[in-house]
Amino acid sequence: MKKLSVKIWMLLLLFITITIVFLMIFTNFLYEELYVEDTETSMIEIAENLRGTYKGGAVTNYFIKQTEDFNRFSDVEVFTVRNPKELSACIPFDIDYESLIGPEERAQLIEGEAVIKRGYEKRFNREVVSVIYPLVDENRLEGIIYVYVPLTKITEMASKDVIFLLITVSLLLLLMAWISLKTVQKVLVPLDKLKVAANEMAVGKYDTRVDVKSTDEIGELAKTFNQMATSIQEEDEKKRDFLSIVSHELRTPISYIKGYGEAFEQHLVPEDKKKEVYTLIVQEANRMQKLTNDLLTLARSEQHQEVHISPLVLSEIVWEVLQLVKTLADKKQISFTVTIDEDTIIKANEQMTKQILINILENAIHYSPVSSSIKIGNELAKNDTTIHIQDEGCGIAPEHLTRITERFYRVNKARSRIDGGTGLGLSIASQLIEMQKGKLIFTSEVEKGTTVYITLPIWEE
Amino acid sequence: MKKLFILLLLCFIGGCSEASFPAIPSDTDFVASLNTLDGSIDFISNEAKIMESWELEEAYTGFALATDDLLLVYGYTVEKAELIELSTGKQVASIDVGEGSTYAYVYEEKIYITNAIDNTVSLYNTKGEKIQTQATGNYPMAMISDGNNLFVVNFKDEFLSKLSMELEQVDEWAIPTSSHGLFIKDNELWLGGHGAGSSPNRSIKRMNINTGELIGEIKVPLMPINMARANNGHVFTVSHGSSSVYEISETGEVLNSIKAGANPFWISSFGDSMVLAGYDDHQLYFIQSGEITKKLQVGKGPFQLIVREIE
User: Fold this and answer.
1) End-to-end distance of chain B based on CA atoms, in angstroms?
2) Which of A346, A433, B114, B125 has minimal CB crowding within 10 Å?
C-alpha cells in the first residue's frame, strides 16, 4: 500500500507536469506563430515597397531586374512573375502546366488583394510562408511579386530559443516537484503523528498526546484526539481508583475478621471478651455485605436496564422510608419535620425511590448532630415535584459539593470508617434519579447544614 | 380545369425537365456571351444593350449556333448537349455526348463536337442524331473547316488531325501542345495557342491549308487564341496573355494593337464593331477603328461569343 503522501504528491506532480507541458506546447506554438507573423509582416513590407515602384502597364524587364537585385541582398526570397501561364491566366483551358498560383488566388489578386499563405508549395518542394502581391493595371493582372521564406528556416530560428525554454521548464518542473513534496510532507506529518499516537493509545498508553499546532482540519482532529485521550485517561484513572478503593474497603473488614478468627484459633480471646468479639465479627461481615450490595446496585444501575415506572403517592413512600431509618435516627435523638403534600403522585419506580430517600436520609442522619431536626417537604411545579431534605449538620464545603456523588468520594476521609458508610450512597442515589429522568441538587453551608433537592416527574392523567 | 391542375401538379413533382428560356426574336441581330463563372448567357443587341439573359442550370462551357434559330450548348462536365430554339426559348433536342465535351463547330448545319475524355470527334445533324465518330489525338478541342476538310487541334498532343467532312482521317500535322484558335485565310490555316510548357506562345502560325507546311509567323504576343475577320477584310486577333487586340492586314502584317479587356479569350465581329470578351473583368468591349467605343458589363467570366446577323 502506497502512502497517502506519495499518492497526493504523485497527483500534484502529474497536474503540474500536465500544466507545464501544455503551457510549453502552447507557448511554443504562440512563439512560432509570432515568429511567422513577424516574418510575414516584413515580407509584406518588402512586397509593398517593391510594388510602390510599379507604374502600371506591362511589367518591365527593369522591374524584374530590380526584384532580382533586391533578392540578392535580402534574407527572404523575392521574385516577380509576369508569365500569364504562371499566373493561371489560362484557367478555363485545361493546360498541362502547374502554375504558380491557383484560380482562387488569381481571383483574389485581380481584386488587388494580397495573398498570404503557409504550407507545402509544390513549386519549391517545401513548406513555405509566402506573400503574393498583385501588380494590377486597371483590371488586368500584369504580374505578381512573390515573396517567400521556407518554414523550416523560421522554425530553426525559433528552435534555438525552444532549447532554452526547455531547460528553463525542466528546472522549473524539478523545483515544483521539490516544493510540492515538501508541502505535502508538511501537511501530512501531523497525520503521521496522529497515527503513532493512536497506536500508543491502542496499547494502553493513555497519557499520549499529539503535538500539532496547525489550525486546519488536521489541527482540529489532533485537538479532538487529545480531548478524547484526556477523557479516556480520566476514566481509566477513575476505574483504577475505584478498584483500589473497593479492594481497600473490602480488605479492612476481612483483615478484622481474619484477626479475630486467628485470635480465636490460638485461644487468645478471654472468655469475657468473646461476646464482644463476636459482635465485632458480625458487624464487619454486615459492612462487607452492605458494600457488596451497594456495588451490585451501582453496577445494575449503570447497565441502563429498563425501569418499571408507576404512579406513587409521595407521602406514603416518605413515611415508609422514615419507618426504616427511625432506629438510626432515634439513636441520635433526631426528629423529622415532614410537610409532604398528601396529593402528590410521582411517576417513578418504587424500589428506586425508596433507595434514593434511604441513602439521602441515612447520610443526613450521619452528619447531623445529636438532637437536631431534619425537615422533609416538597414543592410542586408544572411537570415535576422537588423534594427537599434539610439537615442541621456540619455542611459541605463548596469544593467538595460537586464531587460528593462520585463513588467512594468522602469529604472527610478519616471519618469514613467510623461513619460506617460505604461511600457509595450518594453515587447510587444520583444514578437512580438519573435513570428516572430526575435531578439531584445539593446546597450547603458549612456548620449550618445541607439541603438536598430531588426533582422527580409527577404523574399526569 | 381539374386535368390542368393535375398536369401542373405533375409538372411540379417531376420538375419541368424541359427548360424554357426567354425567347429571342428571330429577326434580331445579336452577339451573345457565355459567362462560365456564373453560368449565364447574355444576348446583346447591335445597340450594345443586353436584350435578354439566360440563367443556365448546368455548367456549360461552350456554345454554338447550329442554325440561325438553333443554339447548341455543351459542357465538359455535362453529359448532354442541348439544342435550344431561340425564337421560343424551348429545348428541342438533346444530344447524349457524355462527359468531356470541349468544343463544338458547325459547318452548314453539320454539328461537330469533340470529346476530350474519349478523344473523339463526332458529327451530328441538327436533330441531334449522331452520324459519325472519329478518334483523334489527345484532348481534341479547336476545330475549323474550309468546306473540304475539318481541322481538329489536339490540345494536349503534338499534332493536328485533318479529317474529311465525314470524319475520315486525312492527315496529321505537327503542332505545339496547348495550341488553340484556328482561322482560315485564303489558302492558309492560321493557328494560335497558349504555348507549350512554361513559355507563353507569342505568335500565330501560318500553314499551307493543303500541305500543313509552315509558311510563316505573325508576332502577336502573348498567347493569341482567337481570331475574327472584320468587315474591312482585316483579321483581328486577341492575345489573352497581354490582354491585347491586334489588327492584321490581309497580307498578314500587324497594323496596330490595342490593350483591351482583362484576360480576354474571344473576339468577334459584330456589325461595324469588333467585340471582345474580358474574362477577368466581366466586360464586353466594342472596338471600332482601333478604339474602344463601348464597354458593357455582362455576367461573370465571359468566355465565348457567338454572333447572329440576319441578312
Assistant:
1) 45
2) B125
Separation CA A383–CA A363 (nearest Å): 28
Whole-model pTM above 0.90? Answer: no
Q: Which domains does chain A have, with CATH numbers?
A: 4-157 (3.30.450.20), 217-298 (1.10.287.130), 307-457 (3.30.565.10)
- Which domains are seen in chain B, by residue range? 177-298 (2.130.10.10)
The kind and range of the H/E element at B163 are strand B159-164
Nearest CB to B194: which of A58, A85, A86? A85
Q: What is the DSSP letter of A305?
A: P
Q: Which amino acid is residue A240, in one-letter code?
A: R
Contact A367, A450 (CB under 8 A): yes
Whole-number Å distance between alpha carbons of B243 and B176 = 22
Q: Cα–Cα distance between B209 and B190 in angstroms, integer?
A: 9
Q: CA-CA distance, A326 to B160, in Å (whole number)? A: 152
Residue-by-residue pLDDT tens, chain B, 311 positions: 455 555 555 445 444 445 689 999 999 999 999 999 999 999 999 899 999 999 999 999 999 999 999 999 999 999 999 999 999 999 999 999 999 999 999 999 999 999 999 999 999 999 999 999 999 999 999 999 999 999 999 999 999 999 999 999 999 999 999 999 999 999 999 999 999 888 899 999 999 999 999 999 999 999 999 999 999 999 999 999 999 999 999 899 999 999 999 999 999 999 999 999 999 999 999 999 889 999 999 999 999 999 999 87
Query: How close is the nearest chain B Cα to the Cα of A21, in Å?
Result: 49
Please choose, from the candidates A246, A240, A244, the residue with its C-alpha nearest in 3D space to the C-alpha of residue A424.
A246
Cβ-defined contact of B243 to A93 (cutoff 8 Å): no
Which strands, in side-by-side order, build the sheet including B179-185?
B179-185, B188-193, B203-208, B214-219
Q: Taking Cα atoms as reference points, which of A191, A415, A438 lies closest to residue A307?
A: A438
Residue among B199, B240, B243 with most chain A CBs within 10 A, to mutate: B243
CB contact under 8 A, B240 and A141: no
Residue B227 sits at φ, ψ, to 5 deg, of -135, 150
- Out of A86, A97, A110, the one facing B280 most closely (by C-beta) is A110
Shortest CA distance to B205 belongs to which of B196, B161, B215? B215
Say yes or no: B265 contacts chain A, CB-CB below 8 A.
Answer: yes
Residue A261's closest CA among A282, A245, A288, A289? Answer: A282
